[in-house]
Each structure stands twice: as C-alpha cells, then as structure tokens.
C-alpha cells in the first residue's frame, strides 16, 4: 500500500443513474427498435466512428473511499477515508469520422434493401460453429426435439460446466436476431449449474440447427404499420 501505486476504481454496482452517470450503452433491443423505425420511415442509416483521446485532469469533487477488503482498520472498521492527495480522472475529447452506410454493428449485419431492412448474424454463426467444433456436422430441422421434453437429469453423466456455459452464452447472443431459437436456448439455460450429457446434447442440437439455417434473421419491411 505504501510502495506500490494504486488506481482508484469506482464500484459499478454502487453507481446511480442521474448522479454518477447520465449516458447509457445501447442495448441490442434498442438497436433493433431503431432499425425497425428507420425502415418504417424509409431512413438511410449511416455509421460513424467516434475516437476518444483521454486527457488527465484534476477532479474537483471531494472523494471518499471505503476500506478495501483485507486492509480494514481493526479499531475503526466502519470509517471511510477522504482522499487528500491529487487525484486524476479521465476526460474524453471526441473526434468522429463518417464510415458510410451502416452494414455491421455490435455483431449484427445490417442490409438495406429497397423494401426494408434485414438484420442477421450469419458471420457470428460461422464463428461459434468453428469455435465449438460444429463446422462439419449433420444438420437438424428444429432447434429442439418436439416429442422429448428437456428435464432435470439427476443420475446422468456430468459434463464440463464451463464449456456448457460458454456455449449457452454464445447462443444467447445469437437470439438477438434469431428469436426462433429463444425457447430452446432458455430451456437449456435452466441447467447451467449442473449440466448433464442429455442437456449438452440439447445444446448441440441447437448448433446443428444453426448449421443448417445460418442466414435467417429479422426482416423489417417498409410500408407497414410500425
């Protein structure tokens, strides 16, 4: 604590909107809604690249910090400390340049057509199929077995929980443009704590379905009620 420099980091879960921050990161749902409205209004969407240059500057506000875990004062465990020395923060100087028509954003591929906007993630499908070894597998016509419900498997063989959760995470992001797999993915998500072979088989089936239908997406047509 004395010899080494320390960086002061705000704890994210203690931040309050309107007090500690004002700007929010766009959600995928908000992007979809924006593109749907742009299609309805027949707007052309353009993309800009905003580059930030970070400059040092002093923070004028008074800053108090709690005692870090493992370094609490046993005589005063509940006190907080006021930062007396110079404290530096980051200020952003923004520069923007146009990148033309929007074609790719947050993993979503955006195609402007004469009669609407189409968003998909077929490039992302290719990436996750390659990542988990499903590039050369037999395909299936449905993401979930229709006559065999996915149930808790108490006595089944366990599988690698980290791999299972990684596969689920990849599929959850895929649902941004593929609502057709949402039910199957959510069914498999229930068993992330202790996945079994039967659950992993269900997850693999979703990948096999994506392998057979990689280019499906969401279509927002023009000239229809928003």
Quick summary:
This protein is of the alpha+beta class and 226 residues long. It contains 5 helices and 8 strands, in the order H-E-E-E-E-E-E-E-H-H-H-H-E. Strand 6 (108-113) and strand 7 form a beta hairpin.
Keywords:
single chain; 226 residues; alpha+beta; four-stranded antiparallel sheet; two-stranded antiparallel ribbon; 8 strands; flat; RVT_2; Ribonuclease H-like domain-containing protein
Structure notes:
- With 226 residues, the protein is an alpha+beta fold.
- Helix content is 27%, strand content 22%.
- It is built from 5 helices and 8 strands.
- The chain has helices at residues 28-40, 122-131, 161-174, 182-189, 197-212; strands spanning 46-58, 64-65, 81-82, 88-101, 104-105, 108-113, 116-120, 217-221.
- The strands form 3 sheets. It has a 4-stranded antiparallel beta sheet with strand order 5-6-7-8. It has a two-stranded antiparallel sheet with strand order 1-4. A two-stranded antiparallel sheet has the order 2-3.
- Strand 6 and strand 7 form a beta hairpin.
- Helix 3 (161-174) packs antiparallel against helix 4 (182-189) and helix 3 (161-174) runs parallel beside helix 5 (197-212).
- The chain is flat, with a radius of gyration of 24 Å.
- The N and C termini lie far apart (58 Å).
- Mean pLDDT is 81; it is low at 87-91.
